[in-house]
Amino acid sequence: MSRITYFLKRVFKMDYHRMWATTKVIREMSQKSRLFLMKDMLTCAVKYNAGYMDYKIARMWELSDAQRKTVITRGISNNIVRRMNDKAYWHFFDDKAQFNETFKKWVRRDWLEISEKTDPEALASLLEKHDTLIGKPLEGSSGVGIQKYTKDDWKDGAQAFLQKLIQDGIGILEEVVVQHPDMASLCPTSVNTCRIATLLGDKQQGIVYAFIRIGNGKVMDNVDCGGMAARIDLDSGMLLTVGADKQGNTYEKHPITGTSIVGFRIPFWEEAKAMCLEAAQIVPQLRFVAWDVAITAEGPTFIEGNSFPSHAVPQFAAHYPDGIGILPEFEKFIDL
Q1: Percent of the chain's residues with pLDDT above 70
Q2: Where in the chain is the domain with CATH 3.30.470.20?
Q3: What's the confidence (pLDDT) of residue 21?
Q4: Rounded to whole angstroms, how far apart are CA atoms 41 and 326?
Q5: pLDDT value at position 183?
Q6: Is pLDDT larger for residue 164 or for residue 22?
Q7: For 201, which of 20, 149, 312, 334 could close a Cys bridge (C-beta 3.0–4.6 Å)?
Q8: Within 13 A of 134's CA, how many CA atoms are on the CB side?
Q9: Where in the chain is the domain with CATH 3.30.1490.20?
Q10: CA distance linking residue 24 with residue 20, whole number of Å
Q11: What is the CA radius of gyration of the chain?
Q12: Superfamily of domain 87-94+179-330 in the CATH hierarchy
């Protein structure tokens, strides 16, 4: 899809109310006029397929043309996914039960698909083994619809609880992942996951980027739920950047626990990388996958995989102080 075609499609689908609200935030961040920002955002939209959120997250008003060319914007990201991932195979990742079954070698927890066809006895057996369980919709992202259940929720028996789960829109019930103590030291209220993106490129295959998502007091670590992210050095597994959230706040130490983010080392990092690289070969029709990996005391385990990886979090400006974005990393794997 050409830049102009993509731009015109975005023009008709744009949420202009949200865009106007975002320009207000950017005006406060940049100290530039709204007229300048609107004109500059339009330029970035035409030249770089950048949306207004791309403009904000990458702080594009601060970048030169040469730097802007290194940012993977929404339009570029969409083109990469379309080229790399055959949509006929997305269901292996988009359906959480199918993902767990396909990658069961690395999904080291009990789980049960929930529907009207669920065997109450199978559910009762799961309930006997655990005091707390996590319920998720079969499809969805950004932590939407995820709920935690305890024994109080199933005190009336498996059949009654099954109906409650169905009413809550739950499609899969899973054992709670207990993270490694070092990972919990960052934020104990959430499972702080590593997102590791593998790319089966024409030039080479491997890991194109990785970052950690850290919660900020809520159950979810997702940045859309108030969490933060930091880049992981691929060789060492060390966090070399500050934590940053979607509002542009940065943290050298976690604001709740006081744990240092810069210099933190991910346990079992080599094992986590090896797991993702091996799993990337299972459904080779999806060549670009972002894996969400939890680190437990026994090693890494998958939470889920993403067939349409978000381009936003890997582009936080705080993680690229030299203004050079992540696009050059992709160009080591594929031509853009």
Answers
A1: 92
A2: 87-94+179-330
A3: 84
A4: 20
A5: 97
A6: 164
A7: 334
A8: 20
A9: 110-175
A10: 7
A11: 21
A12: ATP-grasp fold, B domain (3.30.470.20)
Per-residue pLDDT tens digits for 28-66 = 999 999 999 999 999 999 899 999 899 999 999 999 999
Q: Which residues contact 147 (CB under 8 A, 6 or more apart)?
A: 134, 135, 168, 170
Distance CA 88, CA 156 (A): 41
Confirm if 311 and 115 have CB atoms less than 8 A apart. Answer: no
Residues 6+ apart with CB under 8 A from 321: none
Helices 34-48 & 3-13 angle (0-180, nearest 10): 130
What's the residue count for the chain? 336
The structure tokens listed for 43 are 């330029």
Task: Give how far Cα 294 sits from Cα of 15, 176, 186, 212, 249, Å.
Answer: 35, 11, 13, 10, 24
Cα–Cα distance list, 65 to 36, 47, 192, 336 (Å): 16, 10, 35, 17
**Looking at residue 248, what is its pLDDT?**
85
